[in-house]
Structures are given as C-alpha cells and as structure tokens.
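To assess whether the prediction recovers the assembly geometry, we first specified each molecular entity separately, as shown.
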Amino acid sequence: GAVVSQHPSWVICKSGTSVKIECRSLDFQATTMFWYRQFPKQSLMLMATSNEGSKATYEQGVEKDKFLINHASLTLSTLTVTSAHPEDSSFYICSAGGPIGTEAFFGQGTRLTVV
Amino acid sequence: DAKTTQPPSMDCAEGRAANLPCNHSTISGNEYVYWYRQIHSQGPQYIIHGLKNNETNEMASLIITEDRKSSTLILPHATLRDTAVYYCIVSVSGSRLTFGEGTQLTVNP
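The predicted structure of the complete assembly is given in tokenized form:
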C-alpha cells in the first residue's frame, strides 16, 4: 500500500519555542492530508484538513494561529506548533487518502514533549 | 459521519478467531465501514473496508449485516502481534475520519 512518512518520530522542545512536523506521501500525490492529535489513553482527534495550495480547514476548538499548517506541494504537508507549552505535549499523526471509497494511509506519528 | 459503538475491550486466545463487533445503526447509504487498528505509539494501520458486501483480505474478514446497521471484523487466527486498539469507522470519503474509542483487543498466549 501507499506510504506516508512523518518526521521527526519524536521531539523534545522547550516551552515557548516552535516545532515543525513534516508529513510526506512517498509514492502518491495527496491534494488533501489530515492532522490528528492523540493524548495518552485517548482516541485520535482530527485537528485540521490540509489542502494543497490553499488554506487549511481547522476543526472546532483548534487554534489556527497556534497550529500552522502548510501544504505547499502534492507530497508534503507541515504542521508547526508555535509557542509550544507543556499542554501541547501529545502524539501528532498525519494521514493522506485516495479517492472516495478508498482507505487512508497514516504516518507513524510524532511524539512531542514540551518541557 | 455516522457514530459507531464498540465494546471497550475484548480478550482472545492465541490461534483462535477474534470477532470484533461494531454497531452503526445510523449509517447512511453512501457510507463505508472502515476498520483500522493502532498498536501502542504507532500510527493507525488500515485493515479492511466495505460498503454492503462482506469483504476478505489477507488480514481479516468483514461481515456487514444486511441492514448495514452493524458489522463484525474477524481475525481468523489471532496472534500476540494482533494485540491493539481496533477502530470501526463509518465514512463517506474514507480519508477524513472520526475515531471513536475503539476496542482494546488483547490476545493471550
């Protein structure tokens, strides 16, 4: 199946700094990618839809100025957590899907720890 | 997307079939039933999906009731590596997914 790769797999940053997470579709073009967040012992929560060449669509309650999403090419979407705080520590996961009725492919996730 | 209901946890003996139920009584005619699983600290892994008919692949079988209000994922010969959280998701697109709490399947030796 298709491969989606995230980088880095884990990152530790100081409070107040910004962190960028990359999500790449390695063998297909993805006009739309999705970003999820998962806190310990909880399910995945959709944060935003990343649209190639246009603005991202954020889910209710997700701060667009804090979680900056850029989808500049058909194979790369980035999520930047700005001015990170300890409560932003979480597991961030991206995905990309194909046509309607097909499956989504997920990255391996990025563990962010803000200290 | 329609909501799904799954038991929070299930146990299965290694080598036996694992049957994971999912209720999706409000499913619409154009919504697919998807199953993913997540092993601890990894991204979700696609298992199988279907619209109306039963489906089978190298990983599992998906049985969808005739009224489409429920389904069962069958892992025919569970192994220890199948221990994971299994998510049943109903979606039109298959890409923008709403995850519920899933079922924690524990395969015991």
